[in-house]
Amino acid sequence: MRDDVILQISNLSKSFGPVRALKGVDFELRKGEIHAIAGENGAGKSTLMNVIDGILQPDEGEIIFDGKAVRITSPTMAQKLGIGFVHQEIALCPDVSVAENIFMATTNVSRSFLMDYKALERKAADVLGQLSDINPATLVRNLSISHQQLVEIAKALTLDCRILILDEPTAALTEKEAQILFGIMRQLADRGISIIYISHRMVEIFDNCDRVSVYRDGTYITTQDVADIQPSDVVNAMVGRVIDDLYPKKQSEAEKSDDIILDVRNLSERTRFKDVSFRLEKGEILGIAGLIGAGRSEIVKGICKLEGEDLSGEVTLNGKTLDVGSYRDSIAEGVVYLSEDRKGDGVFLDMSIASNISALKPEQVANALGLIQKQREDEQAQELGDRLNLKCGTLSDPVSSLSGGNQQKVAIAKMLSVNPKLIFLDEPTRGVDVGAKAEIHRILRNLARSGVGIVVISSELPELIGVCDRVLVVREGRISGEVTGDEMTEENIMHLASVGGAQATIH
Amino acid sequence: MEDAVSLTGTQDTKADGPSLIRRILRMRETGLIAIILLLFIVMSFASPYFLTWVNMRAMVMAFAVEGIVVVGMTILLISGGIDLSVGSVTALAMVIAGWLFLNGVDPWVASAISIAACTGIGAFMGFFTTRIGLHHFIVSLGVMVIARGACLLGTGGRPLGLYTLPPEFKFIGQGSIGPIPVVIILFIVVVVAFDFMLRRTTMFRKVFYTGSNEKAAAYSGIRTKKVVFLTTTLCSALCGFAGIIYMARFGSAQPTFGIGMELNVIAAAVIGGASLSGGSGTIFGAILGAVLLSVVSSSLALLDVSVYWQDIIRGSILLAAVSIDHYLVKKRA
After folding, report:
1. Minimum CA–CA partner of A341 in chain B
2. For residue A359, which of A372, A369, A344, A340 has the smallest C-alpha distance?
3. Separation between Cα atoms, residue A280 and residue B37, nearest integer Å
């Protein structure tokens, strides 16, 4: 073993019930390097990081930290070893000041009886100063998501870290903030601190990291110097096949239709979006791109009346004005929305698969007296489950017993149960493994072919580019442009999403 | 038509599965029945009086009326709410109807007005929780105290003796049809009706969706506030109904009746498998929970255990039941 290795993991396995999340993986982290971890959702990245941070205990395998074999039994112990973890999910106390949040861990071990708020704020200002001009006395509740993320990072910086784990830290940051973060990462690395950097964005990995390790389906694939390889090598290693196979065939010229399913004209909301106009043609899959907070979800939720105040504008569905007062009416008109937060509001985790699938219209599986016919409910679930290739034990199992991909299929089956005319899918493959992801994409394409309107919102640009025939880009509540055909590149979309462009005319 | 479909439909192996027996064994109700049976066997040896018709009848009478409140509470718990005011509202139902009766109102009309008033109290709480957005706990705590105060105010703190109640009215509380008391028949009707509706109707399915995940329910087009409003109202309405039965049974309206009832009722529902975080529970299970508590009380009384011990034991049963369930759920996950 080289002596500049701070963390060496070998043959690590971890199972959750029947699911083997990690199958004998290796990982090597050197002192002072920025080491990227790449892998699709479900590849085992989070499990591996949670093992390093002591949140999860491995079933087998060896962890050598700074030359000594260790068992990291809790996050507190990880902290003592000098391992800091900035989670993707923000876990701050909203009603407490920024300074107190940053020094929560230090306060926890502090020996003094009283809080010294002034000193706390001064120290917090020092740390924050490197990152941003956030006032340490502000309550976290009043910060934007990107500032909250910076507070999370500041929190980790105050610990005397030897290893810092950053899980998709730039997901909620602006370009400028991200660049500042990369600068700090490099400074830390120069001081000998090792950084584990998890990201889906190849550009970030190749611009800022030294080495990259790739994982797929719980197995370790490879570790390479970034200088020696190309982004496409990483992507291919991640998905395990050539990327072209990943997405279904797009709409052919012959399949193009002049029929308009959805026509949105000058849709505005009080604050969140303005003058949004677009069309969805029959047979096409329309993508909506944009940074988090740009208003992508808000626009489609506004159309189906899930949220939004003072909506104005005109929406027509198949040539008829869509006049709905609530989401309930919208479902009745055949316009449904698949939520981006599957566990939060997409499925009923502790309820059965069958009763999840019938949730949009339980009346459909009931008789005239309003009594649910279990047989019919099961038949409906069975039929839709088969159509989506749902893998489950029995239909009366709770949804929580399923993998992410299968949970998502239940959520999609729920949409299909009402024979919708138009489906808005918000992050349809978030937290779904590669195989199920491709299946979901095929399902979407088949639905579009059969005449159902499909609109996909996604933060994953490769997904939008691979799946959609046309992509609208939203920036600050307005449509900043549209790309189609060969123009559909990550660069073009990111450009429209971040710096804008002329308001594109709708063809 | 519907029946034809279900009869000729292909048998779905996935839906029924091979584990029907295992599923029954796993059910909360099965465990409770086993414990109750065990208590029966032990007690029939311990006390010759236990397995007599008189004792059985007394035991069922002891929880039958409260059982009606348990039904309302269980449905409310499933929808994600809770109601601490059930005891006071039940007493208030007696007091309102009794007061009206003493002031010359026909007892049936007085009862109807009283039940309507309790329903109104439920609607009032539903308004505070769903429209203003206060927590059920606080709202019902406030109403619990207010309703109790109203009881004492309306009666001067003394029970209202209703000696002139017509016999046909007293019949609901004191009469029997054949060997079976009317109270028990009313109880069984309410339990069976609501258990069936809760299991089978789309209306009550929405209660489960709402309690299981309110946001997901809203994202499924369910008007979750309306659902919670209705379950809150229903619970108080059933308290009103229970109060009237008590009045007919006692022949009086007692302003201090039902103090601490909320704990018994919530304990029964929770022992029977209702979750305080909503989304799960059955009427059948909750009633079994009530039966268990009642059998335990009766047994302790027959064994001459001090009344003061009874609360300690009841509380311990509640904690034990909930802990075991929590452990089993965690193990299964």
Report:
1. B216
2. A372
3. 64
Find, among A107, A118, A176, the residue nearest to A147 by Cα: A176
Query: What ipTM goes with this model?
Result: 0.79
Q: Where are the domains of chain A?
A: 5-241, 247-334+420-498, 352-413
Domains in chain B: how many in total?
A: 1
Structural class in CATH, domain A5-241: alpha beta
Alpha-carbon span A475 to A503, nearest angstrom? 10
Digit-coded pLDDT (tens) for B138-186: 999 999 999 999 999 999 989 999 999 999 999 999 999 988 899 999 9
| Rounded-to-10 torsion of CA B218, B221, B225, B228 | -90
- A393 touches B at CB < 8 Å: yes
- What is the per-residue pLDDT across A182-192, written as a single tens digit (0 to 9) for each? 988 998 899 89
**Cβ-based contacts of A300 with chain B (< 8 Å):** none
**Chain A positions in Cβ-Cβ contact with residue B208 (cut-off 8 Å):** 348, 351, 355
Contact A395 B12 (CB under 8 A): yes
Asked whether the beta carbons of residue A382 and residue B5 sit closer than 8 angstroms, the reply is: no
Asked whether the beta carbons of A264 and A455 are under 8 A apart, the reply is: no
End-to-end CA distance of chain A: 61
Residue-wise DSSP of B150-211 = HHHHHHTTSPEE-TT--HHHHHHHH-EETTEEHHHHHHHHHHHHHHHHHHHBHHHHHHHHHH
| Residues 6 or more apart in contact with residue A330 via CB below 8 angstroms | A303, A304, A305, A306, A322, A324, A336, A337, B221
Q: Return the pLDDT at B3.
A: 36
Mean pLDDT of B73-100: 96
Question: For testing the chain A interface, which of B202, B330, B332 should be mutated: the one with the most A CBs within 10 Å?
Answer: B202
| Chain B interface test: which of A297, A350, A391, A402 (most B C-beta within 10 Å) | A350
Tally of CA atoms within 13 A in the half-sphere of B111 that contains its CB? 17
Coil, strand or helix: which one is A208?
Answer: helix
Backbone dihedral angles phi then psi of residue A288, each to the nearest 5 degrees: -125, 120
| Token pair 């391992």: residue | A83
Q: What 3-state class would DSSP assign to B285?
A: helix
B105 within a domain of the structure (yes/no) = yes
Query: What is the DSSP track for B291-305?
Result: HHHHHHHHHHHHTT-
Which of A346, A350, A396 comes nearest B279 by C-beta?
A: A350
Q: Does some domain include residue B291?
A: no
pLDDT-derived band at B195 (thresholds 50, 70, 90) equals very high
Residue B199 forms part of a structural domain: yes
Q: Do domains A5-241 and A247-334+420-498 have the same CATH topology?
A: yes
- φ, ψ at A262 (rounded to 5°): -125, 135
Check if the beta carbon of residue A191 is closer than 8 Å to that of residue A205.
Answer: no
CATH code linked to domain A247-334+420-498:
3.40.50.300
Q: Tell me how far apart the alpha carbons of residues A375 and B15 are, in angstroms, rounded to a whole number.
A: 8
User: Which candidate from B216, B221, B279 shows the least CB-CB separation from A331?
Assistant: B221
* Torsion angle of the four alpha carbons A404, A408, A410, A411, in this order, in degrees rounded to the nearest 10: 140
* Sheet strands (E) in chain B: 160-161, 176-177, 180-181, 252-253
Question: Quick count: other Cβ atoms within 10 Å of Cβ A265?
Answer: 14
For residue B151, give its domain range. 60-262
The C-alpha of A366 sits at a distance from chain B's nearest C-alpha, in angstroms, of 7
Rounded distance, CA A154 to CA A103, Å?
A: 9
Distance of alpha carbon A66 from alpha carbon A29, whole angstroms: 10
Residue B120 pLDDT: 97
Structure tokens at B321: 């039941």
Contact flag B201-A370 (C-beta cutoff 8 Å): yes
